[in-house]
Amino acid sequence: MAPRMTSPPSPSKKLVYLYLLLVFPIAATLIYVPKLNAAVQARGTDLRPTLHPAEIRDGQTALALRLAKHLAPASSNSTNNGNVAFSPVSIHGALSLVAAGARGATLDQLLAFLGAPSAAGLADFGRRIIHRVLADRAASGGPTVLFSSGIWVDVSRGGLNKAFRDVAVQSYKSSVTRTMNFTDQPGQVAEAINSWVRIATNNLIIDSNITANDIRAAGTDLLLANAVYFKAKWANPFQAYHTQPDTFHRLDGTRVQAQFMSHTMYGLHYASSVDGFKVLKLPYNHGRDDAASHARYSMYLFLPDQRQGMTNMVGAIAAGPDYLYTALPKTAVHEAITVRLPKFQIRFDWDLDSDLRLLGLSLPFSPESADLQGICDKNHHGRPTFLHKLLHKAVVKVDEDGTEAAAAVTMPSFSSGMQPPPIQFVADHPFTFFIMEERSGLIVFAGHVLDPTN
Ligand SMILES: *[C@@H]1O[C@H](CO)[C@@H](O)[C@H](O)[C@H]1NC(C)=O
Ligand SMILES: *[C@@H]1O[C@H](CO)[C@@H](O)[C@H](O)[C@H]1NC(C)=O
Ligand SMILES: *[C@@H]1O[C@H](CO)[C@@H](O)[C@H](O)[C@H]1NC(C)=O
């Protein structure tokens, strides 16, 4: 149902400016030594999570896969060498927050898009994953995980609806819900948002792309932001002295020299080979166990057998959550494996709204039909509420970070000639990565590396 207009629409009717942002630096180190993590192996019990309804988890994963496919190169010999990184958790969380204020057909479309049965189910899912899966583990030596949201609303909107605010605070960790005069103080509004972004991202994103002009020019009444910051060390770090320049083959057939980290792992590790691609799991250090969190983060690398196999591979993986979870390596491999992975750093700015429309989410963006009346207290002042913009920013950094965990490396000596040659996992051509929390199966970050030197 379209919002009722009691006076002529204001000339600037772009009311909701959804700013979504996330940062993901992995100052990471890794290698693989016997680290038996049975979470994936015991799929069916563990991956079909006890934490939250699998249905919504699968909805989140399905969205992640659709976005990953949408952002993958369209042809196998594409001349596009731009790397991609995004956070499905952040995008799903931001849209779930919008769903908490949506009604009617707009809500139905959001629920279908997010793969959730109800707004209440989504809010419950959000609350559980944010407090359990995305709990910060820095104090016990595990990953630093910061997830937060912020909401700024113009005084003319009369503040946030109480029910909406409660969901925002409890399920999406809104650290800020602030009413300001956007007409009078666009500069202060921009600065409030930008400083929130700096804090939420540990100073990693200092240019949040919001200016006083954005606030003024767009006639913005409401801003929602969401940030995820994740920093973890590899459970088994790479040694910096093994890092060497070597050739990386881009999709268009050209080559670049990239810095390759390298390590040969003995003992148990998780790798699989399916349908023309290999999957390797590189676990992050999870810190000391405690009762509060059992989160286990890993990076999964998906490497096509063919140098130009990324488009086909992503097409296959994107078939759906069932296929993905089946393709993940579930049994520990005992053979030695040599891993060569280029260091890379991705800064990805993404204006999501047109892509979401292409993927079928249209109503929240429609000035005529959007029904987001549950967000603010005042909705009948001639200005409809609809989503205007959705920005997403991700920074992903992968390196060996060789200092801290170097002592963890064990390299059993074998008598030469007695061992079969190690399996090779050489990421010298475009590959895909997912950073997942294994107990829940949640994809926290995803991306495509097309040229690690970009
Ligand atoms: C990519 O492959 C298609 C068909 O295989 C071919 O028609 C096209 O010219 C190729 N493009 C480039 C840039 O090589
Ligand atoms: C916001 O600022 C404008 C411009 O100074 C002013 O006209 C308006 O009354 C203010 N709104 C409120 C609710 O204070
Ligand atoms: C954000 O700002 C940077 C630098 O000013 C620019 O390169 C980038 O395109 C902007 N991103 C978006 C999504 O507007």
Care to give the gist of this entry?
The chain is α/β, with parallel strands linked by helices. It has helices at 38-41, 54-71, 88-99, 104-114, 119-133, 162-172, 186-200, 212-217, 310-317, 321-327, 353-358, and strands at residues 16-20, 24-25, 84-86, 144-154, 174-180, 222-231, 244-249, 255-265, 269-274, 277-283, 297-304, 332-333, 337-342, 344-351, 387-398, 423-426, 431-437, 442-449.
Q: Could you characterize what this model shows?
A:
This protein is of the alpha/beta class and 454 residues long. Helices cover 25% and strands 27% of the residues. It folds into two domains: 16-26 and 74-232 and 346-396, Antithrombin, subunit I, domain 2 (Antithrombin, Chain I, domain 2); 44-49 and 235-342 and 413-449, Alpha-1-antitrypsin, domain 1, CATH 2.30.39. β17 and β18 (442-449) form a beta hairpin. The structure holds 2-acetamido-2-deoxy-beta-D-glucopyranose (3 copies).
Strand elements, count: 18
Shape: globular
Characterize the largest beta sheet: strand count, sense, and whether it forms a barrel: 7 strands, mixed
The N- to C-terminal Cα distance equals 46 Å
CATH superfamily of the largest domain: Antithrombin, subunit I, domain 2
Number of helices: 11
**Rg over C-alpha atoms, rounded to the nearest angstrom:** 23 Å
Looking at the chains present, what oligomeric state does this protein adopt? single chain
Total count of domains? 2
Question: How do the helices and strands line up, and which of them pair or pack?
Answer:
Layout: E1 16-20, E2 24-25, H1 38-41, H2 54-71, E3 84-86, H3 88-99, H4 104-114, H5 119-133, E4 144-154, H6 162-172, E5 174-180, H7 186-200, H8 212-217, E6 222-231, E7 244-249, E8 255-265, E9 269-274, E10 277-283, E11 297-304, H9 310-317, H10 321-327, E12 332-333, E13 337-342, E14 344-351, H11 353-358, E15 387-398, E16 423-426, E17 431-437, E18 442-449
One 2-acetamido-2-deoxy-beta-D-glucopyranose binds near residues 155, 181, 183 and 184.
